[in-house]
Write a structure and sequence with these properties.
alpha/beta; 519 residues; binds zinc ion; 3-stranded mixed sheet
């Protein structure tokens, strides 16, 4: 909207503050701040909302090629979406009639809401492949709604779906599953009523349906379809449980504190469906908090998988104590306390404290809810020595809690990696060897070796080794998929067939319970 005298005054102000090179104005963030702060040309530019007026003017100058953003890191500190909003805010301030003010306000609200979803998705969803839309995952919906609740409250019921529909048509996002039946039609009508699009509702709806169908047909979620049996995967980490589970038509809901982790070329960057700090204290138990955050009920979940953080509890840390950089319980040995700096010791103590706190929260929730669950940790982990773990197992032994020791080589791994599973699911470990334990000649690390001959029991890889050729490197890729896990992802992953054997045991137990209830 033109306001020649105000524009001219802003130009005069900015030319006095910023750099002018060959007719182009170079503007830094501090230039802008200075222009907003001074009271120069107050009457001409406008007394109220000075920042919005100057930003709006600058956005237009950039869009029309008369100004450039200046930044030491070469970053565009006012992106295209921000410029659109800045220009709209200025237009709104200059609206001549109530009718035009209303129209600008509607556009501004729409663009702000779209920007809010896109910004949230960039921070909370998995980064999409180049040019592909961002997937809005099912369990993230409640988190999106909560994080931006003020916007949805201001815009009224139905606004979130309307924004998602517009972004879907634009090719920017798509919802993994329908938020409710008939949502496309309802959202399209909402958009028409609010004048958010020049297109009629029926046209918006048919465009959205086409886009959605195409996007969903193309997608192949790494952690299963949302209408399958579901497992809550606490401590998702590198996502190996989800990859294994989806091969037996089981979906996982990953829960983790981690941001984005690069899992390797198999699935690229992954991010948990539910972001949760297990160490945070609360009156509500951890499982209930997870369910609430994901917008699901605990009873809809078939089982819970737990992989409590174990790097701090690993016996391998023992090796570092003489150098004063031991972790976890080994930080407290006399040898380490003598060698470590006070800062180092303090840091280790607080990290260990958070680790112990997080384990307590998981054990308490398991005892309280007692869902079908399986919890894995290396046999050599200090986890199994912790008092709260031992007490919980003793207390719940009458409820079917039981410990099983298996070797992951019996499930195809090239290293033996003895692992303990705590579960309340009746289970008869099988694997390749029929017992879930290592058998020379038939386990994954000694396959084909003749028992009794020299070196027959030597596994072809080791989890901890100084020989790079024997280090765990590659995971068995999921069926029909190319790519491999990164070294750290491969080292930490649980063998797929072990995961699948436990999932089938959980299914059998669920069916048994159903039959029992039926009788
Ligand atoms: Zn073996």
């Amino acid at each position: 909207m033109a306001d020649t005298s105000a524009d001219e005054a802003t130009r005069q102000l900015m030319h006095g503050i910023c750099e002018l090179r060959r007719g182009t104005l170079y503007v830094s963030q501090s230039h802008l701040a200075a222009a907003v702060k001074t009271r120069k040309l107050q009457a001409e530019i406008g007394a109220n909302n000075r920042a919005d007026r100057i930003r709006g003017w600058l956005a237009r100058e950039i869009d029309e090629g008369r100004a450039l953003l200046l930044d030491p890191a070469q970053l565009e500190w006012m992106g295209p979406e921000e410029r659109t909003l800045a220009r709209l805010r200025l237009d709104a301030l200059r609206a001549q009639t109530p009718e035009s003010a209303r129209k600008i306000q509607e556009t501004l609200e729409r663009e702000e809401a779209k920007g809010a979803v896109l910004t949230w998705a960039a921070e909370n969803e998995e980064p999409p492949k180049e040019g592909e839309p961002i997937v809005l995952r099912k369990e993230k919906r409640a988190q999106l709604r909560t994080a931006r609740h003020r916007i949805w409250k201001n815009l009224g019921a139905g606004s979130l779906n309307a924004v998602i529909l517009l972004l879907l048509i634009q090719g920017a996002v798509y919802p993994e599953s329908d938020p409710e039946t008939g949502w496309i039609q309802t959202a399209a009508t909402w958009i028409e009523t609010r004048h958010w699009s020049p297109d009629p509702a029926h046209l918006l709806a048919s465009q959205a349906e086409t886009k959605l169908r195409a996007a969903r047909e193309k997608s192949r979620p790494r952690d299963g379809l949302r209408d399958w049996d579901t497992i809550l995967d606490l401590g998702e980490g590198w996502g190996s449980i989800g990859t294994a589970a989806q091969e037996v038509q089981c979906a996982t809901i990953g829960v983790d504190i981690a941001g984005v982790v690069y899992q390797g070329s198999l699935h690229g960057h992954i991010r948990a469906r539910v972001h949760m700090d297990f160490a945070a204290q609360s009156d509500t138990n951890l499982l209930r908090r997870v369910a609430k955050k994901a917008g699901i009920s605990l009873s809809s979940v078939m089982a819970v998988w737990l992989s409590p953080e174990c790097t701090l509890l690993s016996m391998a840390n023992h090796m570092n104590k003489s150098r004063g950089c031991a972790h976890g319980p080994y930080a407290e040995t006399l040898e380490n306390r003598t060698a470590a700096t006070p800062e180092r010791l303090e840091l280790e103590r607080s990290k260990y404290q958070a680790c112990i706190q997080s384990i307590s929260q998981q054990m308490e929730a398991l005892v309280e809810e007692n869902p079908l669950f399986m919890l894995e940790n290396p046999q050599a982990s200090h986890f199994w020595e912790l008092t709260q773990v031992k007490q919980a197992i003793a207390k719940m032994s009458t409820k079917g809690w039981k410990l099983y020791t298996v070797d992951q080589c019996a499930y195809g791994r090239k290293a033996q990696k003895p692992t303990v599973i705590l579960t309340n699911i009746p289970w008869d470990p099988q694997g390749l060897t029929g017992t879930g334990r290592c058998v020379t000649g038939s386990c994954g690390g000694t396959m084909g070796n003749v028992p009794g001959t020299p070196g027959a029991g030597k596994h072809s890889q080791q989890t901890v080794t100084s020989d790079p050729n024997r280090r765990t490197r590659m995971g068995e890729p999921a069926k029909g998929q190319k790519g491999e896990y990164s070294v750290v992802a491969a080292k930490n992953r649980v063998e797929a067939s072990l995961v699948q054997e436990l999932i089938q045991a959980a299914r059998a137990q669920r069916e048994a319970r159903k039959r029992k209830r039926g009788n």
